[in-house]
Amino acid sequence: MNTKEKILDEALTLFSEKGYANVFVGDIAERVGIKAPSLYKHYKNKQAIFDAIIDEMNRRFEEQAKAMQINGNDAAKDAGIYKSMSEDRLLKLGREFFLYYLHDDYNRKFRKMLTIEQFHEKDLAEEYSKLYVDDPLSYQGMLFGFMVTAGVLKTDNVQVMTLHFYAPIYFMLTVCDRQPEREPEMLKLLDAHIIQFDRLYGRNE
Amino acid sequence: MNTKEKILDEALTLFSEKGYANVFVGDIAERVGIKAPSLYKHYKNKQAIFDAIIDEMNRRFEEQAKAMQINGNDAAKDAGIYKSMSEDRLLKLGREFFLYYLHDDYNRKFRKMLTIEQFHEKDLAEEYSKLYVDDPLSYQGMLFGFMVTAGVLKTDNVQVMTLHFYAPIYFMLTVCDRQPEREPEMLKLLDAHIIQFDRLYGRNE
DNA sequence: GTCTATAAGAAGATAGAC
DNA sequence: GTCTATCTTCTTATAGAC
After folding, report:
1. Cβ–Cβ contacts within 10 Å for residue B194, how many?
2. Model pTM?
3. How much is the average pLDDT of B43-56?
4. Which residues touch strand D (CB under 7 A)?
5. Which nt sits closest to B40, CA to C1'?
6. Would you tell me how many other CB atoms lie within 10 Å of the CB of residue B43?
7. Can you list the alpha helix ranges (DSSP code H) found in B118-157?
8. What pLDDT is stored for residue A203 in this prediction?
9. What residue ranges define each of the domains in chain B, with the CATH number in brackets?
10. What is the DSSP letter of B10?
């Protein structure tokens, strides 16, 4: 990793812990292993570092979204994989999603940074809602739509069913972001949530 | 309202919009209608204002919690009010809870302030989780426990049922805090959520 | 690209008159 | 209790040598 990338990396770490205003250019420089003035050879000013983080994370999320869309569309053609969607498989999927979002450094730090900065600018509020409200509901809603078609889930309101699946997961994610020591407790609750979800919405044949 | 109270009030408003670090003592003073140095006759320093907000809000929440506990216990003795808990009544209760938390100035501003500051100190993380995770789950879990006993709701896991009711409400609350223009959309979704919740968990006799 | 030195300005807080 | 004036410290950012 070159210096310019390392600056973004360390800045993200600090912003996610203290928020933009409480991080000083000198703090970032120290972590990178340079002095504050050297940092201005890489970025015009402190705000430019923040903006570069947003741009870089947007790039990554778009890349990821594209990959998921392809997966989703491929899966749609093969309804068989949904027909065989047992409770165990739903559990595995839920846990993987949860643990990935929780433990992936970029995801966790960026989410925490946006949590702190979401009220500061309209753009950031929209970014937060896109990433943690609308995109997940839309993507998971699509998958659940397939499952309803395939007959493994049953509902007359896919949107609310998706909300019932995702909102508790989001809720537990925010608890772990705030209090990482509660992760074991939340993992247990996550399993109980998915099992109950499957019993409520599954065909249970 | 005297000056000392007005300082707390204006500080809370500013902290909830910009976060502690982005609010300057002069900003608070200006809103109160005095100059910055005068403010130091009322509070030792900026941090003392923040601490006083926390203390004052804790006092209010404890007061409120005490009142709710009394209501809850009284209600427990009168199981009849749960037996007659129709879908319409559940809807009304859900909406009232949601709109109160969303529109009550102290609630909304304090929640936003804690959202911004939750990662800054362990105490604040615990405060946030107490107010918006554990206390609501515990209180609503108690009410739902009564309803299960009364036979209007049916489940073998009250904890997860409570999570299924509360997490979507919390989720929609955070959306409205971030993007108040989405309130109508969220109110519609709230109704759909509660109706579906009632159909999933209600006895539907 | 990194450093030291330093300018420029902001923000918290105090002193002391009224 | 409020004000003006001021101090001190911190922070961003630039200048210019290496």
Report:
1. 22
2. 0.97
3. 98
4. A 23-26, 36-37, 40, 44-47; B 3, 29, 33-38, 41-42
5. C13
6. 19
7. 122-129, 135-150
8. 77
9. 1-53 (1.10.10.60), 68-200 (1.10.357)
10. H
